[in-house]
Task: inverse folding
């Protein structure tokens, strides 16, 4: 794939705080309509990188363009074509989901039907519920619904499946794949490698503010295997999560 | 995506959301409506009756005489019958009864009745009132058929507006309601929006910071003005709160309310900026609101305070809001007549917002 296909381009991104450098010269491209994963341990700089691309944080140096717009000079244009799901973001207190949807449609300056947006993430039954009263999975789905309001070209999901049970997690994967199939580019961070393997077209490993590997999950695994790596234990045809799903059912429950 | 982004639409969407949220927030409703109304109810029922002097009729006193009937007709005297001497003496000592009156027919004919009054040192003021009422009464009774030899007294009363307790209390309560909703409400909402990353999520949309502030301001002012109208209407129809020029007076009061609220919201922005945690908001807010609650003439006229305290009272913004409100409501003053009060509030506003800009935090 060549560079003209890139919708996000990050070159030599550096972010320094007073006492440490969170991001030390990261460069990567995100291609149109792919699911791109940023992986790495906590504190590696994933969220910082994401928030700089989302125009929520100032960069120290480097160049970033999102769909051709410069992240510093054309931040407001970028905000209009992206959808952002933050780690642990809250929503306006005392409002139900429909009212929150109305608020966001005003903030994005678009006309949407709140119920249709909620239906996209299967929350139409919770229309009159408050955000606080939702389960973990429902909260994440609602957050994703708010990212879709402005029909964005790119959505950013920061650890969307952390803390969810296996059914809710799988359900969210289906939703994310569905969004990608509608033509949206997805940038996601996660701590779950099985999730990255299932979802992502390409992944970048971030460690101490630097990218140490970037490729498709398949290639990365093949490289490791060809270097002579072997798992200590022979892999069985199923794992414990398969057992969990098999025992408790794949369909999802009222409360996830 | 070709349509241009409309910032007013975003501001209005925020105002609508905020207004809905405030209406469902118990603390906002309690501070803005319930507290002022309770105070108004209490003082509304207390007020109006004026001074009453409690006078016990001594056991064995004659009851069918012109003195008793004149006292019964008096609006100031409250006669207590059927009390034993012990009860009366005990009550006199505590000051629960202000005096005892004993009237006996004069066996020797003239004058027809002998009146003895027992005052108490526990209630000198009211005793003096009774004294003057009795003097007046006896002069009239004794001089009934006699032409005055030295001077004749002619009395008349100018028909004035009745200044009821509610006319003092209601503007004070309204001012305090605006102060608390401005300071507490603003401080809490901006702190919680910041703390729960609601504002951060807003920043991921094209909305401007000014829209967030204006949207919140519009909602809070709208809510507070609805509360003000409610308080004024209840005060007017249930407790005869004086509105000299009717609807014009209400509009003037609402304009004053808006000015006051904008100043008070400035305090709220400052508090939300300096509060380190949710639990430090109430104490910091109280430092701002309580002195004004007590010293700004909410319950008592500032003139009743000791001289050293009055300059402090006259430095507080709520004092001027209360003052302007009372002038507008009871004296029928226009906004131009209270320009001095308005100017002082505006000066406060400039000062407070200068601090707010420095200490306010978005994240």
Result:
């Amino acid at each position: 794939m060549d560079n003209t296909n890139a919708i996000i381009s990050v070159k030599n991104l550096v972010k320094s705080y007073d006492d440490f450098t969170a991001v030390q010269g990261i460069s990567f491209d995100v291609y149109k309509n792919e699911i791109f994963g940023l992986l790495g341990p906590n504190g590696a700089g994933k969220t910082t990188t994401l928030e700089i691309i989302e125009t929520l944080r100032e960069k120290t140096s480097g160049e970033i363009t999102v769909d051709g717009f410069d992240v510093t000079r054309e931040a407001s244009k970028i905000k209009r074509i992206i959808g952002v799901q933050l780690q642990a973001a809250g929503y306006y207190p005392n409002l139900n989901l429909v009212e929150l949807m109305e608020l966001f449609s005003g903030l994005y300056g678009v006309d949407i039907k709140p119920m249709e947006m909620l239906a996209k993430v299967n929350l139409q039954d919770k229309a009159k519920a408050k955000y606080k009263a939702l389960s973990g999975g429902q909260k994440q789905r609602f957050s994703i619904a708010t990212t879709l309001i402005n029909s964005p070209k790119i959505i950013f999901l920061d650890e969307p499946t952390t803390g969810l049970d296996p059914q809710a997690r799988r359900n969210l994967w289906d939703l994310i794949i569905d969004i990608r199939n509608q033509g949206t580019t997805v940038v996601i961070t996660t701590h779950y490698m099985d999730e990255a393997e299932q979802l992502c077209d390409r992944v970048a490993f971030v460690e101490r503010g630097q990218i140490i590997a970037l490729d498709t999950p398949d290639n990365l695994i093949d490289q490791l295997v060809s270097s002579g790596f072997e798992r200590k234990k022979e892999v069985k045809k199923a794992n414990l999560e398969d057992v969990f799903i098999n025992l408790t059912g794949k369909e999802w429950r009222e409360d996830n | 995506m070709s349509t241009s982004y409309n910032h007013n639409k975003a501001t209005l969407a925020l105002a609508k959301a905020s207004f809905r949220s405030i209406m469902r927030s118990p603390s906002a409703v309690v501070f803005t409506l319930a507290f002022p109304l309770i105070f108004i109810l209490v003082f509304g029922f207390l007020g109006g009756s004026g001074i009453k002097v409690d006078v016990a009729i001594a056991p064995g006193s004659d009851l069918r005489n012109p003195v008793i009937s004149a006292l019964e007709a008096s609006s100031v005297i409250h006669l207590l019958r059927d009390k034993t001497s012990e009860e009366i003496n005990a009550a006199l000592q505590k000051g629960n009864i202000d005096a005892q009156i004993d009237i006996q027919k004069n066996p020797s004919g003239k004058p027809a009745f002998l009146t003895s009054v027992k005052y108490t040192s526990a209630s000198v003021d009211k005793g003096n009132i009774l004294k003057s009422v009795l003097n007046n009464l006896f002069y009239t009774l004794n001089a009934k058929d006699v032409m005055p030899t030295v001077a004749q007294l002619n009395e008349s009363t100018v028909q004035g507006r009745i200044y009821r307790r509610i006319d003092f209390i209601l503007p004070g309560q309204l001012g305090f309601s605006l102060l608390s909703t401005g300071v507490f409400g603003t401080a809490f909402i901006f702190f919680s929006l910041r703390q729960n990353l609601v504002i951060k999520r807003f920043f991921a949309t094209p909305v401007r910071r000014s829209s967030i502030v204006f949207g919140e301001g519009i909602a809070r002012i709208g809510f507070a003005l609805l509360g003000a109208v409610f308080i004024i209407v209840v005060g007017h129809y249930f407790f005869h709160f004086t509105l000299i020029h009717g609807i014009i007076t209400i509009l003037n009061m609402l304009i004053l309310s808006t000015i006051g609220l904008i100043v008070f919201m400035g305090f709220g922005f400052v508090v939300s900026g300096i509060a380190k945690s949710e639990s430090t908001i109430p104490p910091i807010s109280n430092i701002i609101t309580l002195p004004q609650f007590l010293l700004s003439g909410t319950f008592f006229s500032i003139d009743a305070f000791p001289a050293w305290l009055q300059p402090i009272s006259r430095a507080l913004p709520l004092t001027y809001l209360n003052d302007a409100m009372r002038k507008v409501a009871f004296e029928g003053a226009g906004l131009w007549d209270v320009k001095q009060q308005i100017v002082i509030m505006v000066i406060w506003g400039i000062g407070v917002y200068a601090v707010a800009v420095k200490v306010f935090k978005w994240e």
